[in-house]
Amino acid sequence: MRQFDHLREIFQAALTRIDPFQMMIDHVRLDGDILSVSFDDERHEVDLAAYDQVLVLGAGKASARMGRAVEDILGERVTRGLISVKYGHAEPLTRITVVESGHPTPDENGEGAARSMAEMVRTADEKTLILNLVSGGGSALLPCPLVHEGEGLRLTLADKQNMTRCLLACGADIGEINCIRKHISGVKGGRLLELMAPARSLNFILSDVVGDRLDTIASGLTSGDETTFADALAIIEKYRIADQAPPEVMKALSLGAQGRIRETPKPGDPATTLATNILIGTNQAALLAACEKARSFGYNTAALTCALTGESREAAKFLFGIARDVRKSEMLVKKPACVIAGGETVVTLTGTGKGGRNQEMALAFLIELAKDEARGADISFLSASTDGTDGPTDAAGAFASTQVLDLARQAGLSLESYLRNSDSYHFFEKIGHLLKTGPTMTNVCDLHMLLIV
Questions:
Q1: Looking at the predicted structure, is the pLDDT value of residue 131 above 80?
Q2: Terminal Cα-to-Cα distance of the chain (whole angstroms)
């Protein structure tokens, strides 16, 4: 189908724009001893002659690719380093050790990487420059369970794993999930900065968070934390998951709210003054690149938002309503039209199937299309994750159109049954309309693309 080919190429153009390797190569330079960084209006220069060692640390799905760029730029100037990435997201590095770890549920490899990283930075001093390479996924890939001997508190990896599963199932958004992660971790929420002090750090950050909040991306490894233990407890109460949360997690949050465990460092803390945080890529950049590609195909293009949140099923209704209005009255943009939104929605599990927020959105979009099929024949839709993995699946997302509806009917598939069972992956797998890109080595949330012809 021609429209699906266009959607694939539009999505690929977005991925090309946010390739972390190319972004680093284009904006970071070494001239003699001077390391210069230039992103948008940001300019930074560091004299490497002032430092005895350069350490490179990282966590996230895109971090190894960023690390390859750093090795190309700095070469033997890199003393050593350690990066934790999702399985299948490694790059061939020579001076930086790469550890592949579990995501979205943390595992022993990630815990080992976090402990090794903490030990490495404890050797840092005023003559150490640390380059941190941070991207989405860093929270799960660098688990360091909080320990407080004075209060007899010793969280385990199993506690963090179970808490992660609980949060992913209840419909909490990434900011809420990371608030809790920060307060049960020994490195997140700015605690890594405390371990690195008195070393200076340059922190290159690829945003996978709506709003690009530095204290939320990868749970704020290199920034002060504006949230509190009390905020974390409020999230537990909001989703009514106290009975499902591990007892030791509840103990940690309660002790912290009582002031018996020290809070995460806040903005303005002395440790934060040693850090320079540089945002290198965002969902907005991907969205604008997608729009540019759509225009090259002759579509009249509208960039809707890069902050779409909420339940995937509800977002699908909203996007279908826009598509219908464009088709009927060209309300937002004239046909042939391409409307693109970005952001990160959530899924509250209602079954035991397999899927992700983008596949669920595409399935919910099909249900809306089926209700109004006569006026939807010229509408095509793709919802996909820029990291290439939507939820715990090997698909980036899925396509929707009346042609996909026909295939589902021919296969005897019930759209509503698959949605109720949270089984969007198997639905689209049966009719061959999953989008599979493999690991993209980048991560800036999701894109939702409508074509109306």
A1: yes
A2: 13
Domains and CATH numbers, the chain: 19-144+185-227+264-281 (3.40.50.10180), 284-452 (3.40.1480.10)
Residue identified by tokens 């460092």 is 265
Task: Give the pLDDT score at 372.
Answer: 81
Phi, psi of 388 (to 5 degrees): 85, -5
Whether 375 has a pLDDT exceeding 80, the answer reads no
Whether 26 and 214 have beta carbons less than 8 Å apart is answered as: no
- Rounded CA gap, 74 and 186, in Å? 30
267-272 long-range contacts (CB < 8 A, ≥24 apart) are: 267/215, 267/223, 267/224, 267/226, 268/224, 269/190, 269/193, 269/194, 269/224, 270/197, 271/190, 271/193, 271/194, 271/196, 271/197, 272/190, 272/193, 272/223, 272/224
Distance CA 414, CA 139 (A): 36
pTM (predicted TM-score)? 0.91
Question: How much is the average pLDDT of 393-408?
Answer: 96
Alpha carbons 301 and 453: distance in angstroms, whole number = 12
What's CA 444's distance to the chain center, in Å? Answer: 6
Angle at 273 (CA atoms; ends 271, 277), nearest 5 degrees = 105
Q: What 3-state class would DSSP assign to 265?
A: coil
